[in-house]
């Protein structure tokens, strides 16, 4: 029996890679990268004994028309792609806003416009966003990131309601502070301050985010729609 396909955007990042590893036993994978195919190829080689993997490269920040992809085969769409533009609001450039919005919202909309008709016909599908705690609370010095993540939450909640009757679940994982390259701009003392503020007394791991995404991709989440699942060690509740 042919395996269903999971399409993971941002698979070159730590969370995207962890999601690929977590879903590989159950799905054929289509892994997206913006501009670093070597990292995704390495992941594909590592998983070659577990599942079949194809690679899809496209710079989502441009907002341009998507190259062809097998929309009819996608059973799980997992949007991990993201970027961060920390800094003062006054110093942000309109191009930063456009690029971040394209990655966070416009590109998944373009993908889903092609994918959802097939999910609706099958009466089955999973759509998952890896968003952020900042989409709920906002963050100083992260106005661009917080804004586009909040927009993702609006998309998840509204699309989750719209597609529920077609047995398609749309949900998001909202991580807190996770030990990935996105925290590379933080000094060790800054990271320690974060840890001190988190009841679990540590940063999260990409694997913990992937475990939650895998739950949302499974049949165990069949009655969940439009939910934002917080995975943050009790940081914000």
TrEMBL record:
Belongs to the short-chain dehydrogenases/reductases (SDR) family. Pfam families: adh_short_C2. CDD domains: SDR_c. It comes from Alkalicoccus luteus. This is SDR family oxidoreductase. It comes from the Bacteria. InterPro entries: NAD(P)-bd_dom_sf, SDR_fam. PANTHER family: 3-OXOACYL-[ACYL-CARRIER-PROTEIN] REDUCTASE, CHLOROPLASTIC, SHORT-CHAIN DEHYDROGENASES/REDUCTASES FAMILY MEMBER. GO terms for biological process: fatty acid elongation. SUPFAM superfamilies: NAD(P)-binding Rossmann-fold domains (SSF51735). GO terms for molecular function: oxidoreductase activity, acting on the CH-OH group of donors, NAD or NADP as acceptor.
């Amino acid at each position: 029996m042919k395996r269903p396909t999971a399409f993971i955007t941002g698979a070159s990042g730590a969370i995207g890679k962890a999601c690929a590893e977590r879903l590989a036993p159950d799905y054929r994978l289509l892994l997206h990268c913006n501009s670093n195919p070597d990292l995704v190829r390495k992941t594909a080689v590592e998983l070659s004994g577990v599942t079949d993997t194809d690679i899809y490269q496209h710079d989502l920040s441009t907002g341009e028309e998507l190259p062809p992809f097998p929309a009819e085969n996608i059973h799980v769409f997992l949007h991990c792609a993201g970027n961060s533009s920390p800094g003062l609001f006054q110093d942000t450039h309109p191009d930063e806003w456009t690029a971040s919005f394209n990655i966070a919202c416009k590109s998944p909309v373009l993908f889903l416009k092609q994918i959802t008709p097939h999910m609706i016909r099958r009466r089955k599908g999973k759509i998952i966003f890896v968003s952020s705690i900042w989409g709920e609370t906002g963050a100083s010095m992260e106005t661009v990131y917080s804004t586009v993540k909040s927009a993702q939450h609006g998309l998840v909640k509204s699309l989750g309601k719209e597609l529920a009757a077609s047995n398609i679940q749309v949900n998001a994982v909202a991580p807190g502070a996770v030990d990935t390259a996105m925290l590379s701009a933080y000094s060790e003392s800054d990271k320690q301050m974060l840890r001190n503020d988190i009841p679990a007394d540590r940063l999260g791991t990409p694997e913990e985010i992937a475990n939650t995404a895998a739950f949302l991709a499974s049949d165990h989440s069949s009655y969940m729609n439009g939910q934002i699942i917080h995975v943050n060690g009790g940081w914000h509740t």
